[in-house]
Amino acid sequence: MIIKIRNKLLSFVAFFYFYFVEFFNLKKFPIIISIEGGLGAQILSYALYVKLKRKGQKVYLDCEYFQRNNLKKTLGVSYWDWQLNDYGVSMDQIDHRNRSWVYRILMLRDSPTKLQKTISALQEATFSNLFKSSNKLKKQFSSLQLKRGYGAIHIRQGDFLNVASYVEDYFTLVIMFLKMIPDKSEIVILSDSILPSKIIDLVKKEGKKIHIFDNSSITPELSHYIMCKSNLCVVGNSQFGLTAGILSHQCIFPLKWSSQKSYNNIVRALPRYGYLSSGS
Questions:
Q1: Residues 229, 176: Cα–Cα separation, whole Å
Q2: N or C end of the chain, less CB within 10 A?
Q3: pTM of the model as a whole
Q4: Going by C-beta distance under 8 Å and a sequence separation of 6 or more, which residues neighbour residue 34?
Q5: Which sign does the torsion angle of CA 21, 24, 25, 28 carry?
Q6: Coil, strand, or helix at residue 158?
């Protein structure tokens, strides 16, 4: 209880400081943005960092998370390495700071406010080009020889089930996805772990050409790129899927994104996207 109260208080102070600096255009006052987690979370934080920096704002990324990632799994949650190198973004070229007590108080952490700001940054054309223009990923993608106009669905399992506030019914989403894909289109199913047999059996009954990739066969970066390049992308409620969906041609998001109403409202406010409900 005490920890929750402390975290809420820190979040309030950080948000007040962020909006104060933004409203009065105080460019010399530093804004500190936390960056941690997997590829999707890193893309969002980096997009906001670059957007503010281009405006002339003094801004830093807090990279402490990546200095303790030798703890590969704690309390059922994996730690991720820095994953933006394939996009030409290394930690060496960004302004980052370790946490002092002042930065701990003022740092913009994961929250509905941060998600809203980072999504707004990612929707700018500059970032769309950045995360679709990796020569390395282009070559890897080409080697897969996917037919143009394919549809892709991302099914997240793994430690996500331990930390998510809400888990979408993927089996129902797959059924809906199959109904939306034109008969002659190829289907790509992406997952962070081995797919349940009932999903594989369901897809095979459709008689369409299917490609199934998990993290044992391709990297998360390539999975993300495949979704970005798809004609229709259906994603679950993760930041990995969210970022790929925003950068893709057309995306379908779950109608219910989180158990928290504030997160759901942010995702539903995205323009030019559709929404599905699994009935949960």
A1: 20
A2: N
A3: 0.89
A4: 45, 61, 62, 65, 107, 108, 109, 110, 114
A5: negative
A6: coil
